[in-house]
Structures are given as C-alpha cells and as structure tokens.
Design goal:
The chain is globular, with a radius of gyration of 20 Å. Helices cover about 45% and strands about 10% of the residues.
Length: about 325
Amino acid sequence: MPPINRRHLLAGTAAVAALSAIPATKEVFAQTATPDLSGKSVLITGTSSGFGRLGALHYARAGAKVIATMRNLPRPEADSLAEEAAAEELDLHIVEIDVLSDDQVTAGVAEAERIAGGGLDMLVNNAGIGITGPIELQDMTATQLMFDTNVFGCQRMARAVLPGMRAKGAGAIFNISSQLGRVIVPGAGQYSPTKFALEAMSEQLAYELVPHGIDVTIIQPGGYPTRIWVNRNRYTGELRDRTAEERLQAYPALVQRMGTEDGSGRSADPLDVPRAIAEIAAMPGGTRPLRRAVHPGRKPQLEINRISAETQVAWLGESGFGPWIRAVHD
C-alpha cells in the first residue's frame, strides 16, 4: 500500500480517518546519511554566509541543482562560494537577488527557472536580519528594514516561484524562522514580531497550497554561531547611535547590550539547519512537517507548536477548510 499523504487526504473521508491515526513525528532526529536530492532544483536566498552558504553547498553535495542567491554582486563571498563549488564539481549557480527589490526578485527567479529548465522544486527563504534593543528604540527605519527583509522578502520570493511550482503540481517552500518566532526575549527588537508574522504567513500559505501539491515547512533554529551576530551588531550599533539620549536612558540594562552580542558560548553546528531541510526535502510530497525545531539544546517553542496545531484542528478541522487543515497537521 502506498504511503498516505495530504494529496490522498483530499480524495475522501477514508483517507481522513487513516491520517488521523498516524502519530506526528515532527522533531529533529539523528542524521544518519545525507538524503539524495538528485534531480531537485533549489533556490536559496542569503548565501553569502551562515545557514545560506552552508545550505547551498550541502544541497549541491546531495545532488541538487542549486541556485545560490545573494545581493550586491560582485562580492568576495560569491567568488569564494563559486570556487568551492567548482573544486568539488557541484551543480551550483550564483544569481543576484536582493529580497528587498521587486525587480531583482522577478529577474532572479526567472533566471533560476531558466537554469532549472522550468519551475523550481524548492525555495529556501533564508535571508534575514536582526536589530536588537527595546521596542521604543526601534525607529521606523529599523522597523521597516526588519519587516521588509524577514517578512516581505519571503512573500516576494514565494509569489515569484509559486506559478512555476503550481504548473508542476509540486514543490516545497522552507521559511527560516526562529525559536523567537514563538517565544519572546526582552530587548530583541522587532526580530520576534517579524518572525511571528513569518510563522503566521507560512502556516496560512501551507493550508492554501494543499490543493496544489506544494508543501510549506517552517524551520525554527535556536542560537547558532554564524555571522548573523556581526551583521546584527552593525545594524544595532547604527540604531543606538541615532537614538535620542532620553530614550536610551530609559532602558539602561537593555541598551548596555546593544551592538555587543557576539554569539560566544554557542557551539552548536550551523549545518544542523541545512541537514534538517535536506531531510525534509527528501520526504514524499504531502508528508513533510509544517514546523521543525532545530537545535540540540532547549526548544521552548515545542509546546506552543503542539497546542497551536491542536487548536487549529479543533477549531476548523470539521469546517469546510477541514481537509486543508488536517492535511497540514495530521
């Protein structure tokens, strides 16, 4: 008997009953081997460093055709990525995309589809930024940049790739969120608000794409030692320097930390995130989880994820949207 997935769910009530009996297995488990991604085309944003660069190489080593994108080309990071890929004879192509630019997103995705020979199999929305400090200190320059990158950038990319995925009747979108997309740390600025928004947008998109055979997975990393700390400190330092002293003095304990975080004490392997994405990408369509917490340490969001899923099913599971809701959560 073939495995039941969310496509079968829409076929009738018997499949609904069968899926309801399948236990959820949503958490990270030991990676025993690199999944085979041969034949898959992958577009990933923000590949100049961190999860993006590691992911581009990991997916290509797994056999995928990778379109690695970053902004501000030419740049040394693109050259070094291309050199590493060439040395290993990987099928990796570098394309310029700034996720803040409608024109670059449109042109970059068109080029990616040309390279792939059609609609893409995977989109990994990895590009993101953080600017820390109390919410009152987050001026509109910082706030707009955070939402434009972490939320609207993912929306731009999804809108650009979805027509091609819908034409194929298959695809997988991975949105990189955070533990802080479910829990709150004082002084983290607009980071949690943007990731909460990304979580909601991704979940809604997951329901709506069930009839099209396209999966959406939200990746929730904990803290990892990547260059995000360097970039965050630069943006945060600039915010602190342009903030009025009267506002700064209102939050002495939080302001003292602004622009000084370096990620020290974090020893988790950043390759955990690309490994988790590759593992999920290799799953049959319709069986991929909506959320995956990725971190060897504490995962405070897991209980929230569980209760959220139960609430959605209890609220809408028997409604006209029920087949879509249950397809995503069962």
